[in-house]
Design brief:
Strand content: 25-35%
Oligomer: single chain
Radius of gyration: 19 Å
Largest sheet: 4 strands, antiparallel
Distance between the termini: 23 Å
Strand order of the largest sheet: 2-1-3-4
Number of helices: 2
Shape: elongated
């Protein structure tokens, strides 16, 4: 996800934002809905432009750096399974629960709330 692009739609206008990129848009006053998509994941955010000259919206992944998370999950799962599974198979199950269940939950069940969108 490091080099991926966000597909952003504000009301009926579509555009693309690269990771780390800043875009400046002229949005009329009123209530607006922004949808951010990447592959099958998306999030929606409603905001108002009433009496505001400038508004900054920040888009982040719910899992900050997915590559580091997956690497740590694989590493610790293999470490625990290698060191403890022969004598204590429960440790392997606990490791799977700690790392993989939250990842799978965010990747599937929370797929429509995948990004964090904040006003700055």
């Amino acid at each position: 996800m490091m080099f991926r692009k966000y597909k952003v739609m504000i009301d009926d206008k579509n555009f693309v934002i690269k990771r780390g990129e800043t875009k400046e848009l002229n949005i009329p006053e009123g209530e607006h809905t922004m949808t951010v998509k990447m592959d099958w994941a998306k999030s929606q955010y409603s905001f108002s432009m009433e009496n505001v000259n400038k508004k900054e919206l920040i888009i982040k992944h719910r899992i900050p750096n997915i590559f580091i998370y997956i690497f740590c999950a694989i590493f610790f799962t293999l470490l625990v399974l290698t060191l403890f599974s022969i004598r204590f198979p429960l440790f392997g199950f606990i490791c799977i629960c700690i790392f993989w269940i939250p990842f799978l939950y965010i990747s599937t069940v929370k797929i429509n709330n995948y990004f964090i969108i904040k006003e700055h």
